[in-house]
Amino acid sequence: MTTVLQVGGLMPAVADVLARDYDAVVHDPARLASYADSVRVVVTGGHAGVDTALLDALPGLRAIVHFGAGYDGTDVDTARARGIVLSNTPGVLDDSVADTAVGLTIDVLRRLSASDRYVRAGRWATDGPYPLQRTVSGSRVGIVGLGHIGTAIATRLTAFDCPIAYHNRRPVPGSTYRYEPSLVRLAAAVDVLVVAVTGGPGTRGLVSRDVLEALGPDGVLVNVARGSVVDEAALVELLGAGKLGGAGLDVFADEPHVPAELLDRDDVVLLPHVGSATVATRAAMADLTLANLRSFLETGTLVTPI
Ligand code: 8YV
Q1: In this predicted complex, what is the ipTM?
Q2: Of the residues 14, 219, 242, 296, which has the fewest C-beta atoms closer than 10 A?
Q3: 200 CA to middle of ligand 1, Å?
């Protein structure tokens, strides 16, 4: 009897425990019929694809446990409508993702990666000093999505004397940062726009062409959320046309594929979705994922429900 189904790849600290302690099966569409009726819990990475078809195929499914803060690979509305409960791993990755956002901001403005390439290519000796860059301290920063991660980013950048404003659907009660109800106006008023909002259907294309145009030729976009939040085609086009000042991207619309046009640009820093990828953070995410699974199987409730 397969009670626990693993959908998509998971780090060994989770996958090995699932296999050893729960006799979990790794989802394989070709073998689905052999376990479909007995599965009660799915454990999955945030973007693995627990879609409507898979939900339809698992009549006994009661819980979906996500490894990660994001759960945009899951058809959440359909799952909820069927009484299926869901969990994620909030809190434990805020600091690492915020560190990554600040790193990208500094790297794009100060061209750290680009000037590292300059040194390695031997150009310092042949071409002379690297071109002057932009000051990070005091830059005006807009945060799209002032949740836990967005707040951790704001806290860090406040220490760099950056004035912070943010855009959410509604103002955050008690927040001292300036709320801007129009994302286009926020983009027009800042030097750096940092995207930290939840992915999924509700935020798809939120950072539209209009927003990127408002950010303008001196504006920088940093995205540690999901590629789907940004109009990536417009981003590529505007960078190419000199109508956007730069970008620091940890996430992409079609991972692991990165638009080829970005690869040669020194005004862009590209990371392979590593926002939460530290040893300690991933261990904490693994622990919380397994705690949710254990809790659901023992008590029917989740530790960190969505
Ligand atoms: C992980 C993430 O890469 O937490 C998230 O939402 O994007 C990252 O921490 C991902 O969840 C791993 O599957």
Answers
A1: 0.94
A2: 242
A3: 13
